[in-house]
Specification:
The chain has a five-stranded antiparallel β-sheet, sandwiched between helices. Strands 9-10-8-11 form a four-stranded antiparallel β-sheet, with helices on one face. The protein is α+β, with helices and mostly antiparallel strands and 201 residues long. Helix 2 runs parallel beside helix 3. A hairpin with a 5-residue loop joins strand 4 (53-60) and strand 5 (66-70). Helix content is 31%, strand content 38%.
């Protein structure tokens, strides 16, 4: 895997799958944090109060360590794992899939469940574009208002993402600097007068 880039999904998508009366609906969406995921899960639980299961999986970050999956009451390994397996087979991160199930009266058995959750997830991920994003390192830049133009020029030049900004007499910009341009960008910023930079997190 290239250390400077990662793949994720661009926008939310949904897909449906039916098997012996049970209805499975998958919701795939991009996330940046576990809080993004939790709020999405709460919304879906409100939208589908009659669903019997809300199974899910997500992966965040590029080190491969931040992921979670849940069978939400289905037999162990029949829902969360197949969902995560589909996210991983696409090679994407910063993505989550929640599959809700409406019970149809017939037991599907372990192979049937694995197939249903895997298929529904695959269908949802097929209809949303996979995009390449730069791996960014988050920095906070503090500077005097008079330096605004110079700071913004560096941010533009190195394709940084502005995450938040407070504009007063003294300004603070939180920015994501592309990992592959980090040294050059920091060098340029440190060159400016009355500008201080510190790494976040």
């Amino acid at each position: 895997m290239n250390e400077d880039f990662y793949f994720t999904i661009d926008k939310p998508s949904t897909a449906e799958f039916k098997d012996r009366g049970s209805k499975f609906i998958a919701y795939a969406f991009p996330i940046e944090t576990t809080d993004d995921f939790k709020s999405q899960l709460q919304l879906l639980k409100k939208d589908h109060p009659k669903a019997v299961h809300h199974c899910f999986a997500y992966r965040i970050g590029t080190d491969g360590n931040n992921f979670r999956s849940s069978d939400d009451g289905e037999p162990s390994g029949t829902a969360g794992k197949p969902i995560l397996g589909q996210i991983d087979s696409k090679g994407i991160t910063n993505a989550a899939v929640i599959v809700i199930r409406y019970w149809g009266g017939t037991m599907l058995g372990v192979p049937g469940l694995i197939n249903a959750y895997k298929t529904t997830t695959a269908l949802a991920l097929q209809v949303t574009p996979v995009v390449q994003r730069q791996v960014e390192v988050i920095y906070s830049i503090e500077f005097d208002y008079t330096r605004m133009n110079e700071v913004m020029m560096v941010i533009k030049q190195y394709n940084c993402t502005v995450l938040s900004n407070e504009m007063q007499l003294f300004c603070v910009i939180k920015t994501g600097i592309p990992k592959n341009r980090l040294e050059e960008a920091l060098y340029k910023l440190k060159d400016l007068q009355n500008v201080s930079i510190k790494k976040c997190g």
